[in-house]
Amino acid sequence: MCNLGEGVYEKGMKAGRLQGQRDSLDRTGRLIKATTHAGRLQEFLDSADGGKRITALFEEFDIK
Known about the structure:
Elements: H1 2-37, H2 41-46, H3 52-60
């Protein structure tokens, strides 16, 4: 019974991680489209190392 519970737990954790990755990719894709449409793709590319610059772009384009 213990092994069954562990298996269910691990499967749920994996599904959660995969969903988080999909959400992150979707969010980033929307930011790429928004910055491209605004003629600011280079600004996105320059912020791709993360940090405050990319966070500011997500906030500016209201991407949650």
